[in-house]
Each structure stands twice: as C-alpha cells, then as structure tokens.
Target: NDUFA4 mitochondrial complex associated like 2
Amino acid sequence: MIFRTAVEHAKKHPGLIPQFFFICLGMGSASMYLIRLAKGPHVTWNKTNNPEPWNKLDPTYQYKFVAITTDYKNLKKDGPEF
Model:
C-alpha cells in the first residue's frame, strides 16, 4: 500500500523520483552496514561455543572498515595466547 502511494505521487510529481531513489539508497546502505557490524569479530551471538571470539583472530586481520595508515600485513601479536 505504501509503495503504491509512492508510485502514484511519483507519477503526479516527477521531481520526487530522485528523492525516493536516494532515500531507498540510504536505507539500503545503512541496513547493509548494520549487518556488517553484526557479523564482526567483536560481537558474540553464541557464548557457549565461542565466548571470546576476538582472541582467535590473526594479528593481521583488518578490524577497521578503511585503514589508511596501518599496514596489517606486517603486524605481529605481542600478547600471550589464551
């Protein structure tokens, strides 16, 4: 019903088409980013099988979405193994 109303408004006012496009694009991008965050190494969904998943990551794992100055390939793990 909402989609039908949006299409009717877009037919009457063609200037709304870019606005609908960018609203949908922003909502889709935000949803994809939230899904990416939920699947990250610092989120624990099942505490019985793997209570601390961040301890099993390789030190060369890139944590940030964009790493400009850090070269993760040359890092070495300084801490003890748990």
